[in-house]
Write a structure and sequence with these properties.
Helices cover about 40% and strands about 20% of the residues. With about 180 residues, it is of the alpha/beta class. The strands form two sheets. Strands 5-4-3-6-7 form a five-stranded mixed sheet, with helices on one face. The protein has a two-stranded antiparallel ribbon with strand order 1-2. It has eight helices and seven strands, in the order ααββαβαβαβααββα. The longest helix is centred in the first third of the chain and has 20 residues.
Amino acid sequence: MKKYIIIFSIMLLVILYMNLHNKDVSPIVKLFKEHLNEKISLDGYSHVFSEDSISDYSVFRDKYPYLIISYIDEDCSVCKFKLKEWYKYADMLPKNEQLAYVFIYRGENLMNYLKSVLGKRGLHPFYYLYSEEFTYIANNPHIDRQIIDNSFLIDKENQIRVIGSPLTSSGVKELINKAIQ
């Protein structure tokens, strides 16, 4: 009997130990961790647009080795709110000469979309990659759909370095600043 009590006690300790060290991480945090350092494909985009210019994408990437990218779709009402928030709080975003903010836009007419959402021309240096098709989503099937709609800091090799918006978390701002130093 004493032998069974000892075995049972050891098994109980092992189970308790495993439960303490294998706490469940929320599913979204788990997805974020799985996708860090994954590559984002930006194939199919040859030009980058600002509100008053068009540039060759490869020249743009030579100038800005770090991009914060955020996907917006003209049929998405949450995306309109997201874009307004970026413009509203643009002055609070991390700034660095190696960093550019790029919206990946899917829709028919980028300038009409910006005018309808913002009501006027924006005053901040945001850039846009534009496609009428779902190029960004189609080129990145390895990135979970719950993640692909988020904002990312990517490096020169298009690897995800930070997931999240610097607008919503000071922790994300700190991570971005550390990553680009």
